[in-house]
User: Fold this.
Amino acid sequence: MTPRWLSRLWATATGRFGLIVVAVIAVTALVSSFWTPFDPQSSNIGDRWLPPSWPHLLGTDDTGRDILSLIMAGARTAVFVSVGAGVVATVIGISLAALGALTARWVRETVAVLVDILIAFPVLLIAMMISSVWGGSLWVVIWAVGIGFGVNIARVTRPELRRVQQSDFVLAARASGLTPRQSLTRHLLPNVAPVFIVQLSWSMAVAVLAEAGLSYLGFGASVVEPSWGILLADLQRYIGVHPLSVIWPGLTITITVLALNLLGDGLREATDPTLRHRAAELHTPAVVA
Amino acid sequence: MTLAVENLVVEIDGCRVVDSISFDVPDGSRLGLIGESGSGKSLTALAVLGLLPEGATASGSIRWNGTELIGMPDRELARLRGDDIGIVFQEPRTALNPIRTVGRQIAESIRIHEGLGRREARDRAIAEAERVRLPDPASIVDRYPHQLSGGQRQRVAIAMALACRPRLLIADEPTTALDVTIQSEILSLLLSLVAEEGMSLVFITHDLAVLAQVATEGVVLEHGRVVEAAPVTTLLTAPTSPVTQALLRDATATLWRPEGGPA
Assistant:
């Protein structure tokens, strides 16, 4: 049986699009680690700048590498950075939010100030600094986006968690005999999940953008690692001569980020029953006289 | 199963909001706590459950069946809550979790205290929904709170409080937020369930007319102090304190009839 939230997600066109695209990218990343149509790193000068055609479906670049294979291999990096940053952001965000909402007053207030200070840190600039001093690596991107968006998740989730914590139904649940931990897992976290999911999907999308952006600027993936950002940087040098080829990595990045955001929005609606019914009411055909 | 409150003091940031309140609730009796808002009624109820808001501390003595509740570790108190002592709050709009089905919320205390599985808990939730006379119990347990009316939500809250058959029910202004006609329905439902189970009842209200229908003994509070404690009939016919006299003047003639009786 499909879970209820999944069928709700599937019911909207945007949710379906987000889910399919994200699934395709995840599968592509997996497949590309043992199979791509061509070796993404093998150049063949005789095949340079082939137009999209069989067997090079998206054409080839200036050294005759297959662009489709490069994009498939780049998906691996994108998924790695996105998931890594997502995990880091979740751990940091939820811990800070819980500390800032559910503990003694002085701890809560300290965390609130700390979050406000951390939010002002330009994490991407710091990531570029670290990369230029010690050399670029995907881990720098993961930690930079993870910490930056973890703080952001904490900033948005903390007041929400506090609001739910003080709500009557949590008091009623405690009066039914739930321990604080049981009320956390059964009432508090599920109630902040919709807000959290949107933030998480956005941080994962930004991780994809940040990896591409930093790699494009030369601060992210090292040259031997496949990356959409590096591919974009390589191809855009020839944009005047071969404008079509540069579209592919750009389009891939855009669609990926869009799909992650739509998936996040869809999941939020699918996990929040009150929102869903409100939406259903709005969508009931209005009889206009 | 007696509740004995003795010299209960609740302080919020050094300010005494409940000041030396004492009352007894013997097994099967029905006591009313009455007073204006801010008189410390609700805090007294929360102190009994050990669920005072942050910054509030209780001292004095609250004994349940001889066991002191003040200072009892939260883990042990949690075992009493819902199982021995149940509570219904004032506002049915906010007393239910908006993203859980009402069935799961009714069954929650049963699952906690009796360790029932999901399927059995659902069956119990349907039975409990039927007991509080919710319409179509088998389907209503799968609905969400926002799909129910205020009166239906208060019935769910009552079902939650009574699911484990507590020996004492605390009702904190359970009808104040409801329409007058719904109020009388909820009152008679509460009374019939209390009578059925032989539970003790602590009923909190600001309305002497409501109190007259549900309680036999009344404790009148003002600014956290007891100003008068007497049988409800005495409070209605021969109030001695000016506070009670004022409450009597303000008492609304609440429309009430026994459940099933003529309109």
